[in-house]
Design a protein that fits this description.
Layout: H1 2-38, H2 46-60, H3 74-77, H4 88-102, H5 112-123, H6 129-159, H7 170-182, H8 185-191, H9 196-226
Helix pairs in contact: 1-6, 2-5, 5-6, 6-7, 6-9
Length: 227
């Protein structure tokens, strides 16, 4: 009977934890959307060349009259020109190797959300200057910045271990960690921008929050058993 009650309590606790995270995420989305709207400056050209320009070229370059001249940087256009060779095997091997070494550096995977946004705006005839220029930053606020903040809160909540006989301070530390993330001037200035680095930051933080908790719990359990 006690095991059933304990299991039900754990299920309820996990459900409440998930519900709490959902409402925190909604708040973070609103905060980062406001953050994105406040930004009126340019940091460096990469926020255009890494996302906005290639995404715009994919969606709009063929439909404009006259045809839009895409300003791709070398990261998107780098190609290897194969050399003639008498040995067919050596020529094939060399060509494959050089294509891997000299092919495009960047992938379109990181800009797929922006491409999708532009495509929807185009088909709905809602491709205004505001949507094209500010839409990707608002999208990043929801898909990149807010998940990074939430992952920071989640990491801090389980990294704080309660010693025996001491009060549980995990929630307090988690809220302070979230506060520090929200008040970080660099997060506010750069995290919502359309950099590939912002996506990398989000993926690393969320991945650590999802995967490291299991390892952390196992390690703490082993330490307590040794004591």
């Amino acid at each position: 009977m006690s095991l059933v009650i304990k299991q039900n309590f754990e299920n309820f606790n996990n459900a409440m934890k998930g519900k709490r995270h959902f409402f925190i995420y909604l708040f973070l989305c609103a905060f980062r959307l406001f953050n994105a709207l406040l930004i009126k400056t340019q940091f460096d050209p990469d926020e255009y060349w890494q996302t906005l320009e290639p995404a715009y070229c994919v969606v709009f370059s063929k439909s404009e009259e006259p045809e839009y001249n895409c300003a791709y940087t070398w990261e998107w256009t780098r190609r290897y020109v194969p050399e003639d060779s008498t040995n067919s095997f050596q020529s094939s091997f060399t060509s494959t190797r050089n294509e891997m070494l000299w092919g495009p550096v960047r992938s379109y995977v990181s800009i797929l959300p922006t491409i999708l946004l532009y495509s929807i705006a185009k088909h709905l005839n809602f491709d205004t200057n505001f949507v094209i220029s500010k839409g990707p930053a608002l999208l990043n606020a929801i898909l990149v910045a807010a998940p990074t903040d939430l992952a920071t809160y989640s990491i801090a909540s389980w990294m704080t271990v309660r010693p025996k006989g001491k009060p549980d301070r995990s929630k307090t530390c988690a809220w302070w960690a979230l506060f520090m993330s929200l008040t970080s001037w660099f997060h506010g200035y750069a995290l919502v921008r359309t950099y590939s680095n912002s996506i990398e930051c989000m993926l690393i933080t969320v991945g650590f929050a999802c995967l490291a908790e299991v390892s952390h719990v196992v390690t703490i359990s082993q330490l307590r058993l040794r004591q």
